[in-house]
Amino acid sequence: METAISAVISLILALLSIAFGTKYQQGKAKAQQLSQLLKLIVDAAEDDKVSEDEFQKIVAAAKKLMEA
Predict the structure, then answer these.
(1) Nearest-5° angle of CA 16, CA 30, CA 57?
(2) How far is 22 from 25, CA to CA, in rounded Å?
């Protein structure tokens, strides 16, 4: 009886670790995309002028973040 309970608990914990591991990877990817977007914004704002190229990079990074 105790081994059956242990097996069920182990199975539940394994499934939870798989599910949360996937969510962690997705969250980590989002955080990296957000970091890249903020870096682009800061780099563009440093010279008090945002070029068309910088603006397009910022928009592309924001779209990528929103899609993921």
Answers:
(1) 165
(2) 5
Distances (CA, A) of 64 to 15, 41, 54, 56: 30, 15, 15, 12
Q: For the segment 2-38, what is each residue's pLDDT rounded down to a tens digit?
A: 788 888 999 999 999 998 988 899 999 999 999 999 9
Question: What is the DSSP code string of 13-40?
Answer: HHHHHHHHHHHHHHHHHHHHHHHHHHHH
Whole-model pTM: value is 0.70
Compute the Cα dihedral for 58, 59, 60, 61 and give only its sign: positive
CA angle 4, 7, 10 (to 5 degrees): 150
Identity of the amino acid at 68 = A
Domain boundaries, the chain: 2-67
The distance of Cα 59 from the centroid of its chain, to the nearest Å, equals: 18
